[in-house]
Amino acid sequence: MLAYLVRRAAYGVLVVFGVLMLLFALFFGVTKPDDIARRAIGEKAMPSVIAQWKKNHGYDRPLWPGAGHLTDNLLVDHFRKMLTFDFGRSDADDTPIINRIKDGAGPSLSLTLPEFTCGIGLGLIIALFLAFFRETYIDRAGLVLGVLGMSVSVLLYIIGGQFLIGKLLRWFPISGFDSSWLVRPRFLMLPVIVGIAAYLGSDTRFYRTLFVEEIHRDYVRTARAKGAGEIRVMARHVLRNALIPILTGIVISVPTLFMGSLLLENAFGIPGLGSLTVDAITGNDFATLRAIVFIGSLLLVGGQILTDITYTLADPRIRLE
Amino acid sequence: MTWPSFVAGRPTSCLFALLALAACTNNPYPDTDDGRKVLYTSFNEAPKSLDPAVAYDTTAHEITGQVHDTLLEYHYLKRPYQLIPGLASEIPKGQPLSDGGVVYDFALRPGALFQDDPCFELGAPGRKTRVIEASDVAFELYRIADPRVNSPVTEPFSNLAGFAEFSERLAKLAKSDPAFAKLPARERYTRGGDIAGIRVVDPTHLRITLQTPYPQILYWFTMPFTTPVPWEAVEYYNGKGDHPPLADHPVASGPYLLAEYRKQSRMVLAKNPNWYGIRHPDWHAPGATYPSDGEAEDQSAGRLTSESVGQPLPRIERVEFRREKESIPAFTKFLQGYYDSSGIIRESFDKVVREDRLSPEMAALGLRLDKSVLAGVFYLGFNMDDRVVGSKAGARSRKLRQAMSLAVDMKEYSRLFMNGRGVPAQSPLPPGIFGYDPAYKNPYRVVDIARGQALLVEAGYPRGIDPTTGQPLHLTFDTYDTSAEGRPRLQFFINAWRQLGIDVELAGTTYNKFQEKVRDGAYQIFLWGWYGDYPDAENFMFLLSSDMAASKNHGPNTANFSNPEFDRLFSMMRTRENDNERFAIIQRMIGVLEQERPWIELYHPENYALFHAWIKDVKTAGLSVPTLKYQDIDPTLRREKRLAWNRPLVWPAYALLALAALVIAPGVLTFFKERQ
Amino acid sequence: MAALLSSHITANAVVGLLLLGALWVARFVRRNRLWRDAFTQIARRRPLALAVCALYVSLGLIDSVAWIGGGDTGGDAVASHQPRSLLDRAFGTSRERSYSAPLARAEFYGQRPLAHPGKHLLGTDVLGRDVLFVTLKGARIALLIGGLTSLISIPLALFFGVLAGYFGKWLDDAIFFLMSVLASVPGILLLIALIMALGKSTLSVCLALGVTGWVGFCRIARGEAMKLRELDYVHAARALGVPEVRIILRHILPNLIHLIVITFVLTFSSQVLSEAVLSWINIGVDGSWGQMIAQAKDELARDPIVWWNIAGAGGGLFGLLLAINMVGDAVRDVLDPRTSKENL
Q: pTM value?
C-alpha cells in the first residue's frame, strides 16, 4: 500500500510538472508581455512607461535559461512562482495574487459545499425513491423529468431562478454576498438552489441506474426471498452497496470545490474563485489566470489520487500494482 | 428554476424551501443598519488603484474623490461650473511673468489634519496624524513626475517649469544606479533635484510656475491627482509584508475615510473625524457647509430648503458600495429599495420613463428622475494614416468619409440602443462647454443616402463597388468589444454602410490585439469615447491635434488626424480666456472637422439617474465630481418603504408541495396495495 | 476550421464530403448485420428523437450550402456579392427595424407598421432580424461545436489511443502522460486557458473544444485497445505473422467503434453545453445559441417582456440536447453490453 501511494504520488508530481510546462507554453509562448502591459496601464501609456511596467512585473526577462541568465529567466521564474505559491502580482491591478485566491476560497466553498452535499443528498433520496417505485408511472415520470432537466442549459436555470424566486416571489436577495455570517446564508440560498436544480436531473438518473442495477443482483433477491422487508432491503443492501461506486465517483470533485463555480458566482455576484477567473478573463489578467489554472490542476490531481486511494480502500479486490 | 426539475425534486426540495422560507427575507443588509444614515450604492468594475496620482477610472474616482480633499473644488449647485476654495483658502490668480510664464500662489488652510493612520509613526513614535503642509501637495506633484509611479496625467503638468527634466533625471539615476530604485520615494526625489515650477514657500504656501499660459491648470487642482499625500504613507504602504500598497490604502484628508476595502465585493466609507469641516465648523469653509445659492431650478427642485442651507457637511454617516456585475439584479434591488439611487437600465427604460418623464407607476413609488448630459463624446473614427480611408487618398477618401457619415442614423441608433437618450453630436464639443453652439447643425450628420451615393460616385466607388476588384469596397471595423451587449450595436453601423454598398467587416479582437493594431496603424474604423477631465473645449479638441497622434506620439488622437490649419487654430484657442474671439476660433476648428470627417460624431451621453424619495439634495454632475458629502437620507422613510415593497410570496411553495403530493399519492397507494 | 468554413467553397466541399461519408456509413450499416440490427433497435426505441436529430442535421446542411449571386436581396447591395446559404435565401428579405412580437403586425415599441406583418413566426430581435431565422442558423453552429469538432478529433484520438494501447511500452507512457496532463486541468479552465492563449475567436473555441474532447476519446480508444490486444484471436493472428497494421485495422478498430459512437453521442451534448457557458463569459462562438441566450437574458427584464429571443435560443438548444440525450440513452443501451457507465 505504501509503495503504491508513493508511486502514485510521484506520478502526480510528474503530471503537475507537465501542467506547468503546458501553462508556460500557453501564457508565454503565445501572448506577449507588451500586450499585457498595455491592457494593465491604459492606452495612453508611453513606451518608456510600458518598459517600466514590464520591469516591475518581471516580464522583461528572457524566456529560456541561457548563458548569463541561468536562473533569471521567465521559465525558471514561472516554476518558482507556481511551486512556492507566491504567484506574484496581478497583471490587472498589482495586488498579490495569492491574497485574492485566499480571499476567494472562502466564498467559493460556502457556495459549493452546501450545493455539493445537498445536491448529492437530494439526488440520492430521489433516486432511491424512484428505484423503490421502479417500473411505475412515478419512476417513468421521474426519468422523463430528469432527461428534460438535463437538457436545459445552466444559463436558463440561472435566468429562471433569479426571475422567479428573486424577482417575483422575493424569497431571497436576487444576488450579492456578505462576509458576515449573519447575512451570508440569505445570499447563498438562491445560487445553491439553482446549482442543485441544474444538475439534479443527470445526477438522479445516474444514481437510479446504480440502484436498479444493485436491486437486480443475486444477494438482494436472496435477502428478499428470506423475507426481508422492501424498505429494509433498500436501506441495508441496495443503498449501502451502491454507495461505494457513488462515493468513489465523487471523491474526485471534493478538492476542486475550492475552485467555486464559474457561472453561479458570476451571475449571483459571489466574490469567489469563479468570479476571480472571469475577472481575469475580462481583464486579460494572464498572471492570475495562470495561477488559477495551476491551483485547479493541483486540486484535481489531488482528487485523482484520492479517488485511487478510495477505490483500493472500498474494494479490496483491486490489487495495488 | 424551471418547473420540471422543481417537480423532479419534489418532496425534499419543498422541505428545503419550507425550511428556508421560515427565515426568508431578501434584505441584503444586517438588520441593525436599518435606521441609520447609510447610503447604499453599487459599482461594476473593481477599481484598479486608489493611489491618487494614478486612479483614473470612474469607480476609483467614486472613492478617491470622497476621501481626498483637493485645493480647489466645484460649486455644488452652480452651472456652468464655478471653482470654490477647498483646502486652499482662496482661488489663486495667475500672475504673468516677463518670460511668458505664469505663477499661481496657493495658500493652504492652516491646521488641517490628515486622517489617523499608523503610518505617521514613521515621523514620530506614537503619532497618529499630523498637519497638512504645502510640502505634501508638492510631494504629490513630484510623484506625478516620477516614472515609477506611472501617472496617466503627466502631460498636463509637463508645462510646469522643470517638470519633464526632473522626470528624466529620475529615470537616468535609476538606470545608472540599481541601489537608487530601492530608496524611499522622498529620498529619491531629494537626489533627483528640484522642480523649479513647484516651490514650497512656507508650510502653508505653494507656488506653481507654468512656462506658458495654461489657465486650465486650475481645474487639475480640483482633482485627486493633486491632493496632499504624506510621505509617510508612501513609505509605509509599500506592498511588502503586512503593509498593503498605497493603491489599496489611501491616507487622506477628505470628509470620508476608507473604512473597509474589499475591492472585489465591497467598499465602505465612513466620516473622517479629522476632516477640517468637522473639526473647524467655525471656519465656515465653502467646501464644508451646504451652499446657500444655486440655480433657479435648484430652488424648485427643493435643493435650497432651510433644512439644508448652511448645514455642516458631510451629512451621511456611512457609504456602502456593493459590487454588482450584472445590471439587472442591481436594478431589481434598487426597485426593492435596497439601493438608494440607480441609473436606468436599457431594459427597464420603457417601464420607468414615458414621454421623457417618470412613468406614473414609478412616480407612485416616490422616485425622482434626474437627467444630465455628460461632458463626453462618442464617435466612430477613421484611421487617417490608412491607405483607403485616410488622408493619403486625398479628396477621394474625404468624400468616402463624408458619404459614410451621411449613412449613420444617430436618432435610430439612440432609439434602438439607448432608449433615445444621448444628444446627437454635431462636433466633438458637448453642450455646457464653452464653444458649443446649439444652433450649429453639421451638414454631414444628417441621414441622406442619396447624397452619400452621389459622393461615392465622385469618390470613384459607384454603388459602393471598388473598381480595382469589382467587388463592394471592403473595409474593416476593428473592435475589442466582443460582448453580447456590444455586438448588435456594432452590427448597426455595418448595416448602415451596407445601404451605400460598402462591405464593412467587423473584426473583433482582444483589447491587446486592438492596442497592437492601433500602435501599428493597422486599423481602418473604430468606435471610441471620451469623457472630459474638466469643462473646457481644449480638453476635447486636443483629441484631434497632430501632437497627440497615436501613430507618432502614442497620444489619444487615435484617428491620427493631422491638419495644419486645425493645429494652428488649436494652439491659438488653447491659451485664450473664454471670449468671443475664442468662440470664433472654436467654430472654425469645427468647420475643419465638418469637411475632413476624421470622426463620425455620434452622441454626447446623457445620464438618467433615479433616486428614491428618501434621498435628499442630490444634484448630478456631468463631470466626475465628488458630491456625496452634500447629500442626505431619511432612514425612517426608507425602512417603511422597504418593508412594504418586499413581502415574500410564499403560497406558490405550498401549492407546489400540494400538487406534488397529489400526483404521487395514487401511485404510492396502488403500489402498496398490490404489494399486499 | 471556422475560418475555412467561412469560405463558401470549402464549406460546400466539406458538406459534400460529409454527405459522401454519411452515405458510406449508411451503406456499411445496411450491409453489416450487427450494425443494421443496432440501428433498427435504436430507431424503434426512439423514432421521434432520431427524426428530430435528422431535422437539425438537415437544417445545418441547408445553412451550409451557399453560393454567390441570384435571388432577391431586398436592395442589399453588399449581400448580392456574398455567398448566401439556402437558409439565408429563404429568409432573405424579411428584415424589420427593431423588435416585433411573434406574428405581430406592428413594431413592439412605437407601433409602427412592419414591412412583413404577421410573417415573423418568432418575432424579430433588436436589429429587426427574424428570430426564427437566427435560431435556425444556430443549428449549424451547434452541430459544428458538438459534432464537427468531435469528428475531427476522433480520428486523431483513435490513432494515438490505439497506438498507445496496442503497442504499449514507451509509446503508451508518452501518450498516457500527455492525456494525464490534459485531464489534470479542470475542463472549463483548460478551455479558458486555451482560448485566452489562442485569442478569443470562433476558431480557437473549436480548437479548444477539440482538444478537451480528444482526451476523452483517446482514453477510451487506449483502454479498449489494451483489452483487445490480449484477446485470443489477436494473439493467434499475431502468431500467424499477420502484419500489425492489418491486425489493428481488422481486429482492433472495428471492435472499439461502438464505444466511440457512444462517447461521441455523450460528448456531443456536453460540448454544446460547454460552449453555452463560454458564451456567457463572452468567449463563445458567434451566432451560437449560447450567445443568443447571453444576449437575450437582459431582455427578460424589459417591460413588457421580450421573451421570444430567449425562447428561440433556449428552445433550439433544449430540443437538440433532448433529442441527443434520448438517442444517446438508446445508443448506449443497444451498443454497450455492460450497463454500468464509467464515462458518463
A: 0.80
